[in-house]
Amino acid sequence: MIGFWGGVRVFFEGIGYVVGTPAVWLPALVPVAMLIVLFGGAGALGLWGAVSAAAAIADGDAGAWHAIGLWLLRILFGGVALLVAALLALALAQPLSGWALDRIVRREERELGAPEHPELPRGEQMLRALGVNLLGLGVSLPVLGLLTAIGFFFPPAAWVTVPLKVLVGGLFIAWDFLDYPLSLRGMKVGARLAWIGQRFGAVTGFGACAALVLLVPCVGLFVLPFGVAGATRLVVRSSARAG
């Protein structure tokens, strides 16, 4: 087993792989490009709807108050529309970019000498990824909420709750990144939990490092290809040593 510090190291090796491999630059940019496209499309549609709704509500009024009220409604509805568009884009950018991230995983595995894995049906792969992510959220969010509540009502406990939140958040992030190489192997949830349990130190180091990097605001989709590449190295290297 490669251990905690080995998990930290493979995260940075994933960054080095993506940065140093021009062939994966375009797939690595797909999540950010998908975010821009989704936000642009949903935002434009939302603004059009906001303007139409404001005009329909203000219809029939007249005078200066009509103009002022119309603009206030446009600003209010437009702001809500852009917020919804941003949330929608953030929620869908990663799952819709799965095909590009899979290309990074397959190319890196070939270079690392791992055996080829058969292509899974896209629908099956997306459903499995959805189930994996929902399970991760269902476990991590209540735990993080409990730790946050403990720290709020008993501030001295922050010495314990903050590191625990980094640990829990890191394990969820690692669970998310590891989904890509493990999905290519057709590994189901129970098998994934057993796999992580056998390599808990390495997964913890990898996830904690990723969590600290993701504390920087607005870098999530930029870091995603790096994390997937690091997770691929973690899976290939630890599986090879275990074998």
Question: Which H/E pattern describes the elements?
Answer: HHHHHHHHH
Number of helices: 9
Query: How big is the Rg?
Result: 22 Å
Shape: globular
The major beta sheet can be summarized as: none
**Beta-strand residue percentage:** under 5%
Mean pLDDT: 86
Helix content: over 70%
The structural class is mainly alpha
- Total strand segments: 0
Instruction: Count structural domains.
Output: 1
Q: What are the segments in which pLDDT stays under 50 over at least 5 consecutive residues?
A: none
Q: Between the first and last Cα atoms, what is the distance in angstroms?
A: 10 Å
Quick structural summary:
It contains nine helices and no strands.
Structure description:
It is built from nine helices and no strands. By secondary structure, it is mainly α. It has one domain (3-242). Helix 2 (25-58) packs antiparallel against helix 3 (64-96) and helix 6 (158-184) packs across helix 9. The longest helix is centred in the N-terminal third of the chain and has 34 residues, at 25-58. The N and C termini lie close together (10 Å).
